[in-house]
Amino acid sequence: MSKKAIQDQWTEYGTMCWGCGRNNEHGLQIKSYWDGDETVATWHPQPYHLAFPGALNGGIIAALIDCHSTNTANAAANKAEGHELSSEIVRTYVTGSLFVKYLKPTPVDTPVTLRARVKEMKDQKVTVTCSLYSEGVECVTGEVVAVRVK
Amino acid sequence: MSKKAIQDQWTEYGTMCWGCGRNNEHGLQIKSYWDGDETVATWHPQPYHLAFPGALNGGIIAALIDCHSTNTANAAANKAEGHELSSEIVRTYVTGSLFVKYLKPTPVDTPVTLRARVKEMKDQKVTVTCSLYSEGVECVTGEVVAVRVK
Questions:
Q1: Residue A101 near residue B94, CB atoms below 8 Å
Q2: ipTM of this predicted complex?
Q3: For chain B, domain boundaries
């Protein structure tokens, strides 16, 4: 597993994101690491991140999948071109679309693990698939299309 | 426009949702109202609900679309059967899948408006389309498939 989180490689501009910014004290602050050709993030819900009693909120889950996948897209696309995310010539990708399929309720009282991988990479688009697991059980699956911005 | 928000019609069990529960003090607490055959919600972002400077976070947007659309599905399906959401015989629908397409950045410093309508209603599934507007401009569009739970 990589030692430094993808989110900790961004320049200051990219650190205020509510989902994953290291400088957003109100946010979820997820951290994504490379593990071979996948990225992994483990995140601990707060008791108030509820959908209904016992279940993690679906909007929070969508936010986790969005940030983990878009960070994966940025890291992968720039790695493919030999750029670090901290570089001044970094190419930036933002979420173009997000699809989330909820397979079963996700418990709110245990950490969740996200695993993502690049499905397709074109010049202007990176498609990433992502699943969310609770205690090894896949509860949610998703796909993000990240698009390059100038 | 209806006087009472859909979220304020739920029994206590449904009031802890992070996205829209009236009893979740840490949540977004959106309120959805009927306006003819559409539902409308207006919501004010906090300054820290950022994606990057100036732009509303995509995960927050997904959460807004999820809650507004799923509340619309529940209200519409139960209304079609003559049930109030506060009824003991209410049929409950949860998010089965969520699709969000980000058309342009959404400003973080002005209120956003969500408008949703039922696209299709079957016995076990309600499909809802939803758009998010900032100062009248459509910035995001989405679709939620809500599925009935026993």
A1: no
A2: 0.96
A3: 6-149
A67 in contact with B at a CB cutoff of 8 Å? Answer: yes
Token pair for B90: 């209410």
Note whether B61 and B28 are within 8 A (CB): no
Chain B residue numbers touching A108 (CB-CB < 8 A): none
Contact in structure between A124 and A57 (CB atoms under 8 Å): no
Q: Which is it for the CA torsion A56, A59, A65, A67, positive or negative?
A: negative
Can you name the CATH fold of A6-149?
Answer: Thiol Ester Dehydrase; Chain A (3.10.129)
What are the pLDDT digits (tens) for B46-80? 999 999 999 999 999 999 999 999 999 999 999 99
Give CA–CA dist A44/A104, Å, rounded. 18
Nearest to A62 among B21, B96, B98 (CB): B98
Contact residues on chain B for A70, CB-CB shorter than 8 A: 58
- For residues A68 and A144, give the distance between their C-alpha atoms in angstroms, rounded to a whole number: 10
Q: Which of B49, B50, B63 is closest, CB to CB, to A60?
A: B63
